[in-house]
Amino acid sequence: MKRILIIGAGPTGLGAAYRLHELGYTDFQVLEGSSGPGGLASSETSKNGFVYDIGGHVLFSHFRYFDELFDRMLGPNFQELQREAWVWMMDRFLPYPFQNNVRELPREAVLR
User: Fold this and answer.
1) 28-31-8 Cα angle (round to 5)
2) pTM reported for the whole predicted model
């Protein structure tokens, strides 16, 4: 019987397994309920060929270890996309992500 059980083979579970292995642990097991790894960072292809993301595939990090780990693990299997999106509110467009740009609203709305 394994001493450490990791539930889910999404990015967090896989990252935990990788780190345990890196630290020399061998008494762990990863369980995943889906047919493959990825969790909410996976995609499915419909019968007619459309690809649907299960969840967000966006990684925000300022940690060198994390960034280097994902670079090593993904290799060339990633797509970098510069996204430009806007939110229409109070008769103006606000750049996405909305939370970072509420300062563009009228002062009284920001304070409220």
Assistant:
1) 105
2) 0.61
